[in-house]
Specification:
- The protein is an alpha/beta fold.
- It folds into 3 domains: 160 residues, 3-Layer(bba) Sandwich (Glucose Oxidase, domain 1), CATH 3.50.30; 291 residues, Aminopeptidase (3-Layer(aba) Sandwich); 45 residues.
- 39% of the residues lie in helices and 20% in strands.
- It has 16 helices and 19 strands.
- The strands form 3 sheets. It has an 8-stranded mixed beta sheet. It has a 7-stranded mixed beta barrel with strand order 1-8-6-5-4-9-19.
- One of its GO terms (biological process) is regulation of signal transduction.
- It is found in: Endoplasmic reticulum membrane.
- This is Nicalin.
């Protein structure tokens, strides 16, 4: 009978039909499985140790369900949020109770309002200041990621108490979910880290043989909440650019015997400025503790350059007020005079801050030199060493005031030249020999295009360090590099691997959907099985109805 043939088909041929036609149905389906997965580059939060204290996040791998800022509840959730929606309080709660955090940055950090910039500065400072056990990643803005964040905000907040129980159950079953995956092992310590300091000098000349020395220093690294996003256009790209321009100007002046100044000029680009000025520390140890003598032992003063395009005011930070008539005091007067002549709206102020020897973290780079009893000061457009603008990912090329940078370059160069040549008034640099705006712009463009966090620059044969060395060799004498490496027994600093990676975002259904779907499939198969098993009964029942109908007709 025909039902026996049907039964034979189900038992013998149906599995083969499924294997053939199911892939065809998947291929012609309007839903593309590939669209259920997205991939984005991400940047892990800072992780380093300084003086034995851990800073930044300690984890890297993620495989968790995505939730919004208002929808998460357990350590099994990865919070996905926009930077502007995150607050210091919400971050503190997340780092204690959540499983991971993925933050999408604004579309353009250069177009933030003053309120948004201040919010970012405060949030970055709060995140960097403490150790965090969960993975924290940052992703640049993209329309696709913004759609995912919006979808998470709209569809994953199933814990809304304003909804009825029925709506909550339906939403928990029908909602589209996301799984956040960052495949990464635990961060490992780097054993090849070294911080390079490059120095060279221009010899001066004096008829009586008494040649004094001026040391000009700037640290070249930057800092922000994520190493790969720390470009430091102002802090401390501006200090580096001014130092390089001073090298170009005075190497040209010192090239002729009749225009050679009566001061030796020592220039140093130090590394590790953002981690307690480790480069200056090592350089000082090599200079002052060596038996071969030092080029800075009897320096008239050490001038450090740090963040010089943030405001119109220039602050001269000192640990001890200079004595009247000392070289530092005379430079301060020349700086005020030069600022008044070049830009009357600019002001020059002195800021006195004592060194707290009980504090492991120094405020300014000159404090490293003051501790070793060298006259030193820092020039900066920031009034306080606690200003958050020294440590932010928003310090980009677009946020840098180029006109202010060039103006401050000329003010510092003019003040230094007046002191070196003993010119009481008037401008030394003019049309024939002046600061080169194109030279400054080219350097700041070069520096601001690459992240300069200490971890990134501490690799062997770093390109930026090599570029600085080549530039020094072009203008200066006796160019050398000093490398600071962490002590194996009691390291001052330690760096870790894994500063960037890739996040995979998978579109998934909630676990309860799988349960409901499984139950539905089981019921469907059970009904299908019962139908197949009862086909003979149904056939006989249909035949009996047909026979009865024919008998009534007859």
């Amino acid at each position: 009978m025909w039902f026996e043939e049907i039964e034979e088909i189900f038992k013998g041929y149906l599995p083969y039909y499924i294997l053939i036609f199911l892939p065809i149905f998947i291929i012609v389906s309007p839903v593309n499985p590939v669209t259920g997965s997205s991939e984005f580059p991400v940047y892990r939060m800072q992780q380093y140790d300084l003086h034995g204290i851990a800073h930044g996040c300690r984890s890297a791998g993620i495989n968790l369900e995505a939730k919004s800022l208002t929808g998460w509840s357990t350590p099994r959730h990865c919070i996905v949020a926009k930077l502007g929606d995150l607050t210091v309080d919400s971050f503190k709660n997340i780092k204690l109770k959540a499983g991971a955090l993925l933050i999408m940055l604004p579309n353009n950090l250069e177009n933030l309002s003053p309120e948004d910039k201040q919010h970012l500065l405060i949030l970055e400072n709060a995140m960097i200041a403490q150790e965090i056990s969960i993975p924290v990643y940052f992703s640049k803005y993209s329309p696709e990621l913004e759609t995912i964040v919006r979808d998470i905000d709209m569809n994953l907040d199933t814990n809304d108490m304003s909804k009825s129980a029925a709506e909550g159950i339906i939403n928990s079953i029908a909602a589209n979910g996301y799984q956040i995956v960052v495949s990464s092992s635990s961060p490992s310590l780097r054993n090849d880290a070294k911080i390079a300091t490059i120095h060279g000098y221009i010899p001066g000349y004096s008829s009586d043989g008494k040649i004094q020395t001026i040391v000009i220093v700037a640290h070249y690294d930057s800092f922000g909440v994520a190493p790969e996003l720390s470009f430091g256009a102002d802090s401390n790209g501006s200090g580096v650019v001014i130092l390089l321009e001073l090298i170009r100007l005075f190497s040209g002046l010192y090239a002729e015997q009749k225009t050679r100044g009566k001061f030796n000029l020592v220039f140093a680009l130090t590394g590790g400025g953002k981690i307690n000025y480790q480069g200056s520390k090592k350089w000082l140890e090599d200079q002052l503790d060596s038996v071969d003598g030092s080029i800075i032992q009897d320096a008239s003063y050490v001038m450090c350059l740090d963040t010089l395009a943030a405001n119109d005011s220039i602050y001269m930070h000192v640990s001890k007020p200079p004595k009247e008539g000392s070289p530092s005091s005379l430079f301060y007067k020349e700086l005020k005079a030069a600022a008044h002549n070049i830009h009357p709206a600019a002001t020059v102020e002195g800021v006195h801050k004592k060194i707290n020897l009980a504090d492991d973290i120094l405020g300014w780079e000159h404090e490293r030199y003051s501790i070793r009893r060298l006259p030193a000061f820092t020039l900066s457009t920031l009034k306080s060493h606690k200003d958050f603008r020294k440590y932010t990912i928003s310090d980009t090329r677009g946020n840098l005031d180029s006109d202010r940078l060039m103006r401050n370059t000329k003010i510092i160069a003019e003040a230094l030249a007046r002191q070196i040549y003993g010119v009481p008034s008037g401008e030394i640099f003019g049309n024939s020999w002046n600061i080169d705006n194109k030279h400054i712009a080219a350097w700041i463009d070069f520096l601001a295009k690459q992240p300069r966090s200490p971890q990134i620059l501490s690799t062997k044969d770093n390109l930026l360090v090599a570029t600085f060395k080549d530039t020094f060799n072009k203008f200066l004498r006796d160019v050398r590099i000093t490398n600071a490496v962490p002590d194996k027994r009691d390291p001052d600093f330690q760096f870790y691997q894994l500063s960037s990676g890739t996040v995979n975002v998978y579109s998934v259904k909630p676990a309860v959907f799988d349960l409901v779907l499984t139950i539905g499939i089981v019921i469907y198969l059970l009904i299908l099985y019962l139908l197949i098993e009862r086909i003979p009964l149904l056939y006989n029942l249909a035949c009996s109805f047909t026979l009865n109908a024919k008998m009534k007709v007859n």
